[in-house]
Design goal:
single chain; alpha/beta; Rossmann fold; OB fold (Dihydrolipoamide Acetyltransferase, E2P); 2 domains; 5-stranded antiparallel beta sheet
């Protein structure tokens, strides 16, 4: 679901924008949800730091705070380079600043025409939904997570295997580009991924596309990078059945 963030220091307008978005989503089957509605850009930025998906941002430019809308957008881009930013303002001359800050806004909407504003908000939601649907059909599947302060978007095809770290609630993701440590459980990760990933052992979740040998006697799976992942005896038959079905 695409999270939607709204930041406007005029409380009356803030509620109106939230109402526009909420009403529109009620009548359209869009993959979106309202994640944060606030007059405070600092609250907005705190929420963005904890998000795992690209978001939609409706921002007032002239916020009565230490951070204005364009500066907030600049900070957002550090956490969400792929999100969609829409500015709402009473000052059309501020549009040039958007280009100066290189924040790549989807739209620049003027407050002075309420009916036009409402229509433009709807159009922005429609545009994002179309782009989102197109990206899901063209782009490779991604596993999204956080590693420390960094957000990761790892293509399934680059992941070798997941390994639980003994004595902790951490996982180690082994990829073709290197390893990443995250806080997660193998059970939860397994539910997110597709059938190419097989739970070979309580501590391993393996991308079978990278497996080159299933050693029953040794109790391991040999990966393309020559690393070994444990294979429990009770999982062998299930693995063989899974691979047989894939080859039908």
């Amino acid at each position: 679901m695409i999270p939607i963030y709204i930041c406007e220091d005029n409380i009356k307008l803030l509620k109106k924008y939230e109402e526009y978005v909420s009403d529109y989503l009620c009548f359209h089957d869009f993959s979106m949800r309202i994640a944060c509605v606030t007059p405070d850009p600092k609250t907005l930025l705190a929420a963005v730091q904890n998000a795992d998906e690209p978001g939609i941002y409706f921002l007032d430019i002239m916020l009565s705070a230490s951070v204005n809308g364009i500066e907030a957008a600049e900070q957002i881009r550090k956490y969400d380079p792929d999100g969609w930013i829409i500015f709402i303002t009473s000052y059309p001359e501020m549009s040039s600043m958007v280009f100066q800050y290189r924040v790549e806004a989807l739209d620049f909407i003027l407050k002075d025409a309420p009916q036009s504003l409402k229509r433009r908000v709807f159009q922005c939601l429609e545009t994002v939904q179309k782009r989102y649907e197109k990206s899901r059909t063209i782009s490779p599947k991604l596993y999204c997570c956080k590693s420390g302060a960094h957000k990761l978007r790892l293509p399934y095809e680059d992941i070798l295997y997941f390994e639980s770290v003994s004595g902790s609630h951490k996982l180690l993701i082994h990829t073709t580009a290197g390893n990443y440590e995250i806080y997660a459980s193998l059970n939860d990760v397994e539910k997110e991924l597709d059938k190419r990933f097989f739970r070979s052992h309580k501590s391993y979740l393996v991308n079978t596309d990278y497996a080159i040998e299933f050693n029953r006697a040794g109790g391991y799976i040999l990966m393309r990078n020559q690393e070994r992942c444990l294979l429990s005896v009770r999982k062998i038959r299930k693995l063989e059945h899974s691979l047989m079905n894939d080859n039908v």
